[in-house]
Design a protein that fits this description.
The structure is a homodimer of 414-residue chains. By secondary structure, chain A is α+β, with helices and mostly antiparallel strands. Chain A is 32% helix and 28% strand. In chain A, the strands form 2 sheets. In chain A, strands 1, 2, 3, 4, 5, 6, 7, 8, 9 and 10 form a 10-stranded mixed sheet that branches. In chain A, strands 14-13-12-15-11-16 form a 6-stranded mixed sheet. In chain A, strand 1 and strand 2 form a beta hairpin. In chain A, helix 1 crosses helix 2. Chain A is globular and about 70 Å long. The N and C termini of chain A lie far apart (45 Å). The interface between A and B is large, with 60 and 60 residues. Chains A, B: This is Arginine biosynthesis bifunctional protein ArgJ. Chains A, B: Catalyzes two activities which are involved in the cyclic version of arginine biosynthesis: the synthesis of N-acetylglutamate from glutamate and acetyl-CoA as the acetyl donor, and of ornithine by transacetylation between N(2)-acetylornithine and glutamate. Chains A, B: Keywords: Acyltransferase, Amino-acid biosynthesis, Arginine biosynthesis, Autocatalytic cleavage, Cytoplasm, Multifunctional enzyme, Transferase.
Chain lengths: 414, 414
C-alpha cells in the first residue's frame, strides 16, 4: 500500500500521497506511447474519464495561441464537460496556421471515435518545437493503441509522454474527506523552458473525483493558477502552448462543492497544494537548473506590487546567476526589487537569504556573508523581502541560471 | 591627421571621426587614474570643461537610485550647467544609505575645490558592485592628481577608467557644420551587464561644443535616449546607476541651436548617431556576448507597440541562446512577439532573418533554413518583423546569451 503523509494546512487538513498517480481519483485511466514524434521517448498520451467530467481550463495570454488550445477551448465551451485529454510532446503545433488547426481537430476527432464519446469532450494539448506541422501519419495510427492501453496503471506512461526537456516526471496527489467521502485531487505537469506564465502556464493536468459544478471549478482553477503556476518563471519567455486543465469526475459522491460548502476551505487548500507543488516541480526542473529558488515578499502595499516584486527578483538573470554561483549578492536582489514597479521605501526594506538577515531597514548587515552563502546553496534557495509597507504578500518560484541552460537552448533543434 | 568618413543621413550630413575622442569638442579635457578601487585597472576618471557648459542628464527609473545620481541631479537643477564630471568604477555607491550620499558629495566637493569651480557644477557617477561603501581614503587623495592630469590627450585614460566587465572602450565622435562653424559631438560609454535601461541607461557621457540652451539640450537628450539607449538590453536587469549626461561648451560659436534653427535636423541626426552608436557598442559588448543582435519592427499599429515588440524579441533568453547557437528558430521569435503586448494579426506577420524571409504572412517559408542560419551568424545578427498593421517602427539592440554570461555573473564578486 502506498504511504500517506499528513499535511495540516492553516484551516484545513489533507493527506499527501507518497506515490501520486494521475489516475488515482475515481473514474480516471491513462496511457502513453512512443509513436515517433520524438526519436525514442514516449510522445503521445491520453487521460480518460469513465463519465463526462466537469471541466475547466486556463490558457496562455500569448497572442500566438497554439491550435490545440483553440480546439480545447471551443470544445469545453459547448457544455463545460471533458471526458478525455490527448497530449503529444515533441511538437507544439503552434504557428502552424490552418493546417495546424486541422491536425488538432483530427487528434480530437480520432480520439473521440475510438473512445466512443462526442468530439467536443476531448481536450487536446501539444508541446515541443514551434512552427512545424504534426506528423499526423504517425500520430493517427497510434490513437487506437493509446485508447486500448488506457488503464489505472497508465500513470507513469502518461507522465513520461508529455515531457520535453524535463529531466523527470512531475506529479502530485492529495486526499481529503468531504461529506464523509474520500476525495482525491491528482495532477501531472511538464516544463521546462519557455516558462513565464501569464494567466495560465505550462501543461498541467489535474484530475479529481470531487463533485463540483463547472463555473465553480473554473473560478477555483483561475484563482489557484494565479497564486501558483502564474508565479513561476524559468526564463521569462511566455509560451504559445501553456494550459492547465482539470477534470472532476464527481464519483467521490460528495455534495457538490461550492464556496458555501463547509469543506470548501479544505478542498481549496488541497487543490491549491497540488497546483503549487506542480508549479514548484516545474521551476525546480527548469532547463539547466541546479535548484529551486523561492522568493517571498511580505509587507507589500498591494498584492499586485508584492507579486511584481517577487517575480522581478526570481526572474532576474543576475539574481539567477548569483544563486548558481552561491554569491549572496544582495545588491542584485534590491536592484530587481527597485525596477519591479512595486512601491516601497528603500530605507524600510529587510532582506533575508534563508534565515539570515542581510539587509535591515535598508542597511547592509555586516559579518553575515558566509552564513548567507551557506543559505544560498540550500535547495530551495529562499529569499525573503519584507517591504514593511503594508500587509500584502506574494511568493514566486524560479531556478538558477546555469551553463546548461545555454547549452540546452543553443542546441535545441540542431 | 585622423581619418573622417562621410555619413549621409536622411536629411542631414555629418562626418564620423575615425579616431573619436571625448575631448575633441572645444573646451574639454579628461583624465583617468588607478587609485585602488579595482585591483589593477584604472578606476577614477574626470571630464572637465574650461567654461561652464550647458548640461542635461537622464537617470535610471529604478527606485534605488545610486547616491551619485542624486548629487548630480541636485547640482544640475541649480543653474542647468555642469563644468566637470567625476566618475569611479569598481563600486556603484548604490544602496549605501546616508554614508553613500556623503561620499558622493565628498567626491563632488573635492573635485570642485581642486578645479576651483562651484560644487554644484560637478557631476558624479559611479559603477560597479552594489552595496559596498566607497573607499574614500583611496579616492580622495587621487582627485588632485586627476585634476593635474587633465589634458585633451586624456581621452583614453578616461574611457578606460569607467569600465567594469566591459572588454573594450566605447567611444564615438561626429562633426558637422552649423552656421559655418564646425561643431563636434563626442561620447564615451560603459556597459556591460545589468543593462535594460528604462528612461535612461548605463553610464554615457556626451560632450559637444555646440551652443545650445539647457531646456533644448534636455529635451534633445530625452528624445534621443528614448530611441537609442532605452532600446538596448543585455540581461533585462535595469541598473541603479544608469545615467546619460551631456555637456555643451558653446565654444563652436554657432547661433544657439533650437528646433527652429535651419541646421537643427543636422545636429539632431549627428547627436542621435553618437547616442545610437554608443548604445550599440554597449549591446555588442554585453557580458559574454559574441555578437550584436538588431531587431527591427516595422508596420506596427503604434510606436509603443513596435517598441515593445522589438524589446521583447531582443530580450528573450530563448532568442538570445538561439542566436548564440546559430539556430534560426523563428518560433521563438514569434513567441516573444506574441507575449510582447503589441497588437497584431498573426496571419499578417512577415519575419526576416538577415535578408532571408522565413515567415511570410504568418506562414513559414520552406527551404530557407540553411540561408537563415548563415544570416544568423553575421554580426550584427539582424531580425526584422513586419507586422503589416500600420506605419510605426522601432529598433532594439541586444546580444546573444552565452556560457560566458553565466561564468561572468556566477563569479562576479567571488
Amino acid at each position: 500500500m502506498e504511504q500517506l503523509q499528513v499535511k495540516v494546512a492553516e484551516e484545513a487538513e489533507f493527506r499527501v500521497a507518497g506515490e501520486p498517480r494521475i489516475t488515482s481519483p475515481q473514474g480516471f485511466t491513462a496511457s502513453g506511447l512512443h509513436v515517433g514524434i520524438k526519436r525514442k521517448r514516449k510522445d503521445l498520451g491520453l487521460i480518460a474519464c469513465e463519465v463526462p467530467a466537469t471541466a475547466a481550463a486556463v490558457y496562455t495570454m500569448n497572442t500566438y495561441q497554439a491550435a490545440p488550445l483553440r480546439v480545447t477551448r471551443e470544445g469545453l465551451a459547448m457544455e463545460g464537460k471533458m471526458q478525455a485529454m490527448i497530449v503529444n510532446s515533441g511538437n507544439a503545433n503552434a504557428c502552424t496556421g490552418a493546417r495546424g488547426l486541422e491536425d488538432a481537430k483530427a487528434m480530437q476527432r480520432e480520439a473521440a471515435q475510438w473512445l466512443n464519446i462526442p468530439e467536443h469532450r476531448v481536450g487536446v494539448a501539444s508541446t515541443g518545437v514551434i512552427g512545424e506541422t504534426l506528423p499526423m501519419d504517425r500520430i493517427q495510427p497510434g490513437i487506437p493503441e493509446l485508447v486500448k492501453q488506457l488503464d489505472s496503471a497508465g500513470h507513469d506512461s502518461f507522465c513520461q509522454s508529455i515531457l520535453t526537456t524535463d529531466t523527470r516526471i512531475k506529479t502530485v496527489e492529495v486526499r481529503l474527506t468531504v461529506d464523509g467521502r474520500e476525495v482525491r485531487v491528482a495532477g501531472a505537469a511538464k516544463g521546462s523552458g519557455m516558462i513565464h506564465p501569464r494567466m495560465a502556464t505550462m501543461l498541467a493536468f489535474i484530475n479529481t473525483d470531487a463533485a463540483i459544478e463547472a463555473p465553480v471549478l473554473q473560478s477555483l482553477l483561475r484563482q489557484v493558477t494565479d497564486e501558483t503556476f502564474n508565479m513561476i518563471t524559468v526564463d521569462g519567455d511566455c509560451s504559445t502552448n501553456d494550459m492547465v486543465s482539470v477534470m472532476a469526475s464527481g464519483l467521490a459522491g460528495n455534495e457538490p462543492l461550492t464556496p458555501d460548502h463547509p469543506q470548501w476551505p479544505a478542498y481549496y487548500q488541497a487543490f491549491s497544494y497540488v497546483a503549487r507543488e506542480l508549479a514548484q516541480l516545474i521551476a525546480r526542473d527548469g532547463e539547466g537548473a541546479t535548484r529551486l529558488v523561492e522568493v517571498v515578499v511580505t509587507g507589500g502595499e498591494t498584492r499586485e506590487g508584492a507579486r511584481r516584486a517577487a517575480k522581478a527578483v526570481v526572474g532576474s538573470s543576475l539574481v539567477k546567476t548569483a544563486v548558481f554561483g552561491a554569491d549572496p549578492n544582495w545588491g542584485r536582489i534590491l536592484t530587481a526589487l527597485g525596477y519591479s514597479g512595486a512601491r516601497f521605501h528603500p530605507d524600510r526594506v529587510d532582506l533575508y537569504i534563508g534565515s539570515i538577515c542581510v539587509v535591515h531597514q535598508g542597511c547592509p548587515v555586516s559579518g553575515v556573508e558566509e552564513l548567507a552563502k551557506e543559505a544560498l546553496v540550500q535547495d530551495p534557495a529562499r529569499i525573503e523581502l519584507n517591504l514593511n509597507q503594508g500587509e500584502a504578500e506574494a511568493t514566486a518560484w524560479g531556478c538558477d541560471l546555469t551553463y546548461d541552460y545555454v547549452r540546452i537552448n543553443a542546441s535545441y533543434r540542431t
